[in-house]
Specification:
The chain is of the alpha+beta class. It is built from nine helices and 25 strands.
């Protein structure tokens, strides 16, 4: 059905650099004719409101008790949001993962956002889709001002939005809801396969680092619940005996190759995408130094299992442990241990009840680690690499397929909301079906995108 979509028969120029042409019969309406800014501080009434957040999944209800994400220290400075309001983040637009969302809830949100009340002309769902499409490719750059790449609210209200006839807006929303649902089903199916492959990889790693490679070797009790029986000739040592916690800091990185923040490290896999020193504004204040073959482990929210072995010298945020192993422990062997679910469960249990889970060195340093002879550690590392390579390849293939589906979805939405493709006829032939629930947070780090900078108000 999507492949059969065709362009409209006639177009006209809009004069807007991010839009180009639209179908000839579409209107162009200044945003002040569609919405108006509203800012009502909740002040002492903040306990009466649900806390909302604008994330990659749109406007969601926050669970304050979970401890995940950032929270304002003064909830009274939050502003009221009503169901049907459009919420925009109009500062740091190029870096913000998502700058617009339609609230399906009554609640409150940080005052750094700009809240617009819908005036009832046309479809607010269509308008959200349109500005989401503009945001995906950051096409509104001509509206930016200043070093913070801010879009002043008055400038935004003076900007025009394309507006199809009401029945056509409804057709666009209906068609894109259906198309997004179909694509989301495909993405989730691939995610489930990735999860199964990761479980298989976990089992291989856990077995290797706790039992070794020889199934016939005699075992002995370790006395450690998560570890169970271990080969009779293995030792076990506290982490602080076989690795040091490096805390050396610096306020500059001119002599270093890379900078690593928590968001640069993928959970569980050890994949890291560090920022290079030529990047601007990498950090302010003190950061930790690390060397090649140091093992970095994220102490904040340890359940994310952000551990990797450094391949170069660099600096990192203070929320990492920098673990430097001695001659009895291979760095990669320690990384594998820190990627086993049993160990992560034990580490995370030490933070139980904390609003923002953070493991300390006193606990980490006393963690009991299985310690085979160094030659056996090397053999185990090589065997893990060999056995998990087909899984890595399969996971990478599925991740690439998901990326392509997302790129296709972004392109499809943009083409439809800007009138490049006509969905009027196709929308009439859609089946009636329940849309998948898109509200769950597949990316646990999405809540880190919450802006708290009150100075950004425009």
């Amino acid at each position: 059905m999507i492949a059969d979509l065709k362009p409209y028969s006639a177009y006209r120029k809009t004069g807007l650099p991010w839009l180009g042409e639209v179908p000839e019969h579409w209107d162009l309406i200044p945003n002040r004719g569609l919405m108006r800014r509203r800012k009502v501080l909740v002040e002492e009434r903040h306990t009466e409101y649900k806390l909302l957040s604008l994330t990659k999944q749109g406007v969601i209800v926050r669970d304050i008790s979970s401890g995940k994400g950032k929270f304002s220290s003064d909830m009274g400075t939050s502003q009221e949001v009503r169901k049907g309001d459009l919420v925009f983040c109009l500062f740091d637009v190029p870096e913000t993962p998502r700058t617009v969302g339609l609230s399906r809830y009554d609640g409150m949100i940080t005052g750094a956002y700009t809240v617009f009340e819908w005036l009832g002309r046309g479809s607010v769902d269509y308008t959200e889709l349109f500005y989401s499409a503009m945001d995906e490719r950051k096409l509104l750059s001509p509206l930016y001002s200043g070093l913070r790449h801010t879009i002043p609210a008055e400038r935004f209200l003076a900007t025009k939005t394309p507006l199809p006839p009401p029945d056509e807006q409804a057709a666009i929303v209906r068609f894109l809801n259906w198309a997004n649902g179909q694509l989301e089903k495909a993405i989730r199916a691939k995610r489930k396969v990735i999860a199964l492959l990761n479980e298989q990889k976990q089992a291989i790693i856990h077995r290797a680092v706790t039992r070794g490679l020889d199934p016939s070797v005699p075992l002995k009790p370790s006395g450690i619940p998560w570890l169970g029986d271990i080969p009779e000739h293995w030792k076990q040592r506290r982490l602080k005996i076989i690795a040091s916690n490096v805390t050396e800091q610096t306020s500059g990185m001119s002599e270093f190759d890379v900078y690593v923040a928590l968001e640069n490290v993928e959970s569980w896999s050890g994949k890291v995408n560090p920022q290079r020193k030529q990047d601007d504004n990498l950090f302010t204040g003190q950061v930790k130094k690390f060397q090649k073959n140091d093992v970095l482990f994220g102490k904040l929210r340890p359940y994310l299992a952000k551990a990797f072995t450094a391949s170069v010298t660099g600096v990192c945020v203070g929320e990492f442990f920098v673990l430097r192993t001695n001659s009895f422990l291979c760095p990669k062997f320690l990384e594998h241990i820190l990627h086993t679910k049993a160990v992560i469960y034990v580490i995370n249990s030490s933070t139980f009840g904390a609003k923002m889970p953070r493991v300390d060195w006193q606990f980490m340093g006393n963690l009991q680690i299985p310690l085979p002879p160094i030659s056996e550690q090397i053999d185990i590392i090589q065997k893990i690499d060999l056995d998990t390579m087909p899984l890595h390849v399969a996971i990478s293939r599925f991740e690439r397929e998901i990326e392509l589906l997302r790129e296709y979805r972004t392109r499809l939405v943009a083409d439809i909301v800007t009138g490049k493709l006509d969905v009027r006829e196709a929308a009439t032939m859609l089946p009636d079906e329940t849309l998948p629930d898109l509200s769950d947070n597949d990316n646990v780090e999405a809540l880190e995108d919450e802006p708290l900078d009150e100075e950004a108000l425009v």
